[in-house]
């Protein structure tokens, strides 16, 4: 993919790397960026050679500073709504891709940029990164899914404080409250992301997919319904060859080699 594109695509050993590529604008999300990101995610969803995705940003300063404010300032209300709806489709696509998606936050993740990361399965960040929802400070709302996902990730009270004050937090606080799972030195960010991805891909792909689906769907269910779904999925994986491989390896104290069936 051309280096001038707003999102770069690379594939390496079953892992797709999507790089937001507007470093001169701190990788702000404009219409072409979201449209291309949507197209690439659709492509990845049916690409059997790809088992996982790493989403990151170009440059050393920002993962993404959020929505392109210059565009929003001159857009009509209907255009803003359509822009937000496209962004919501992108975040929903990330969350329901059916494949591992890791956000590698190489710098600032603000507003819509943080909402992209919140849709990912796992978030890792460089030590100097800042994360925040400054939307209220410009008279706006976190309209790409942040008002929903942030509360589910860190709890209603902490989410309310971040969203209503528009306050940015450092990676130490983000790690403490569970918004990021790993903090990395800048030169180790992608290595850390790959290590996490490879560890997950080494497991049974069916077990990983159903575990994530149980987590994702279970958040919208009662405890009883969610537990029942987990039990159903447990029975479902018992029909797979991977289940027999894994349980036999445990009994025999050997390392399982899964085949994805």
Structure description:
- This protein has 11 helices and 10 strands.
- It has 261 residues and is an alpha/beta fold.
- It has 2 domains: 7-201, 2-enoyl-CoA Hydratase, Chain A, domain 1 (Alpha-Beta Complex), CATH 3.90.226.10; 205-252, Lyase 2-enoyl-coa Hydratase, Chain  A, domain 2 (Orthogonal Bundle), CATH 1.10.12.
- The strands form 2 sheets. It has a 6-stranded mixed β-sheet, with helices on both faces. Strands 4-6-8-9 form a 4-stranded mixed β-sheet.
- Helix 4 (112-118) crosses helix 5, helix 5 (146-154) crosses helix 6 and helix 9 runs antiparallel to helix 10 (223-237).
Could you write a compact summary of the structure shown?
It contains eleven helices and ten strands.
The CATH architecture designation of the largest domain is Alpha-Beta Complex
Series of secondary-structure elements, N-terminal to C-terminal: EEHEEHHEEHEEHHEHEHHHH
CATH superfamily of the largest domain: 2-enoyl-CoA Hydratase, Chain A, domain 1
Radius of gyration: 19 Å
| Low-confidence runs | none
| Residue-averaged pLDDT | 94
Distance between the termini: 33 Å
- Specify the CATH class of the largest domain: Alpha Beta
Counting H and I runs of at least 4 residues, what is the number of helices? 11
Give the helix/strand class. alpha/beta
Largest sheet: 6 strands, mixed
Principal-axis shape: globular
Task: Give me the CATH fold name of the largest domain.
Answer: 2-enoyl-CoA Hydratase, Chain A, domain 1
Give the % helix. Answer: 40-55%
Supply the number of structural domains: 2
Tally of DSSP β-strands: 10
Please report which band the strand proportion falls in: under 5%, 5-15%, 15-25%, 25-35%, 35-45% or over 45%: 15-25%
Strand order of the largest sheet: 1-2-3-5-7-10
